Automatic annotation (TrEMBL):
Residues 212-449 form the Hexokinase C-terminal domain. This is Phosphotransferase. Its EC number is 2.7.1.-. Catalyzes the phosphorylation of various hexoses to hexose 6-phosphate. It comes from Anopheles quadriannulatus. It catalyses: a D-hexose + ATP = a D-hexose 6-phosphate + ADP + H(+); D-glucose + ATP = D-glucose 6-phosphate + ADP + H(+); D-fructose + ATP = D-fructose 6-phosphate + ADP + H(+); D-mannose + ATP = D-mannose 6-phosphate + ADP + H(+). GO terms for molecular function: ATP binding; D-glucose binding; fructokinase activity; glucokinase activity; mannokinase activity.
Length: 455
């Protein structure tokens, strides 16, 4: 019993570095706001990590948007094409199809990528008998963009495993238009380019007018929020006067928070190892502490460390456990879904990893490690959201949230609500709302609002 107790105590002791104290969260909030203000300011934008790109989306849906719209959602290893028919406020039809992007295209040329997308768009329009129609399209492009207008966005850098040549520094809307023109067979009007966090906000705002923040916690992590135009130095357009809109959505690109060392005081050896072995060392450091692309690997690194120290599995690991990337983020959610004191999912996961010899104590320890990693992620996101809510200082704010980690992790929502409540000013009420398909329906709504404004 002494050894079991000892391993249990030692693992908890060594996992303390994965637990954020309230004091640390307050400091993170302070640093997030400082960095957001640097991104908004003309003087400091160039060197700011949190770029706070202006989206030029200034109108929220009002429920009167009608018609057929296409949406293109590119943000990971798959992309989706959607056809959305808005009928009235709560009545819409949505058809969609997922297309794969082969690794060869993810690492090939930009021309190959956009030709592939244009071909899939044309095939989709044929399948759904809208091949002959002229349709407005909203383009969700979930990579860091410098937007120069609603339909002009320059790729700042690739993330999430993409590295297509000839795209960084180029207008991706133009690249898409060029690919469509090369085909010459479909008639599509690209009405807007947006980020998935903006789409999430728009999708929620369609049914909830209080929605002022959109957050993604999936393969990546990002947030956008509604800011006063007067606070946006880089906004290209009139900022005051009759009929001038007072607000604009800001795409923070907060995944890059900490790239200047602002998170070093809470980063661990696991975070440093993940960063060293990533495709973009030194970049997107907050994202690497939060998102689904890294959460499973963070847990694996801790499990490996404790196994090698003889504190787990009797010091005997497995080839799969010791292989990078083999402890998937979905395992974290599955393990934490077990009822207290039961280890059904945990045993199933450990068996898949070749760890059939795990004891109940091992299962309890593995679960604890997973809880530390996922709670830290939830608390980091909550620090950012609470900081934004306090900055906006509206009496009531709805936060639209999407992404696989938020959707599928059994405790993420509750951990966030609890922590945000703790740090939001007492007079502000807030709620978190699961976005129904922000990057799809949200993109169509941005296109629909753009069409509405153009009339």
């Amino acid at each position: 019993m002494g050894v079991i107790k000892d391993s249990f105590t030692k693992i908890r002791e060594q996992c303390k570095e994965l637990i954020l104290t309230d004091k640390q969260i307050e400091e993170i909030m302070r640093r997030v706001i400082k960095e957001i203000n640097r991104g908004l300011s003309k003087e400091t934008h160039a060197e700011a990590d949190v770029k706070c790109f202006i989206t030029y989306v200034q109108d929220l849906p009002n429920g009167k948007e009608k018609g057929k719209f296409l949406a293109l959602d590119l943000g990971g290893t798959n992309f989706r094409v959607l056809l959305i028919h808005l009928k009235d406020e709560n009545d819409f039809e949505m058809l969609s199809k997922i297309y794969a992007i082969p690794q060869s295209i993810m690492l090939g040329s930009g021309t190959q990528l956009f030709d592939h997308i244009a071909e899939c768009l044309a095939n989709f329009m044929k399948e759904h008998s809208v091949y002959e129609e002229r349709l407005p399209l909203g383009f969700t492009f979930s990579f860091p963009l410098t937007q120069l207008g609603l339909t002009k966005g320059i790729l700042a850098r690739w993330t999430k495993g993409f590295n297509c040549s000839g795209v960084v520094g180029e207008d991706v809307v133009q690249l898409l238009k060029d690919a469509i023109a090369r085909r010459g067979d479909v008639n599509i009007a690209v009405m807007a380019i947006l980020n998935d966090s903006t789409g999430t906000l728009m999708s929620c705002a369609h049914s909830n007018r209080d929605c002022k923040i959109g957050v993604i916690i999936g393969t990546g992590s990002n947030a956008c929020y509604v800011e006063r135009v007067e606070n946006c130095d880089l906004f290209d357009g009139p900022k005051s006067g009759p009929n001038i809109k007072q607000h604009v959505m800001i795409n923070t690109e907060w995944g890059a928070f900490g790239d200047d060392g602002a998170l070093d005081f809470v980063r661990t050896e696991y975070d440093r190892e993940i960063d060293q072995h990533s495709i973009n060392p030194g970049r997107q450091l907050q994202e690497k502490m939060i998102s689904g692309m890294y959460m499973g690997e963070l847990a694996r690194l801790a499990i490996v460390r404790f196994t090698k120290a003889g504190l787990l599995f009797g010091g005997v690991g497995s080839d799969i456990l010791f292989k990078r990337g083999q402890f998937f983020t979905k395992y974290v959610s599955e393990i934490e879904s077990d009822k207290p004191g039961t280890y059904y999912n945990c045993r199933e996961v450990l068996e898949e990893l070749g760890l059939e010899h795990a004891t109940d104590e091992d299962c309890a320890n593995v679960r604890y490690i997973c809880e530390c990693v996922s709670s830290r992620a939830a608390h980091l996101v909550s620090a950012g959201i609470a900081a934004l809510i306090n900055k906006m200082d509206e009496p009531s704010v709805t936060v639209g949230v999407d992404g696989s980690v938020y959707r599928f992790h059994p405790k993420f929502h509750d951990l966030m609500v609890q922590k945000i409540r703790q740090f939001v000013k007492p007079h502000i009420s807030f709620d978190l709302m699961l976005s129904e398909d922000g990057s799809g329906r949200g993109a169509a709504l941005v296109a629909a609002v753009a069409c509405r404004e153009a009339q």
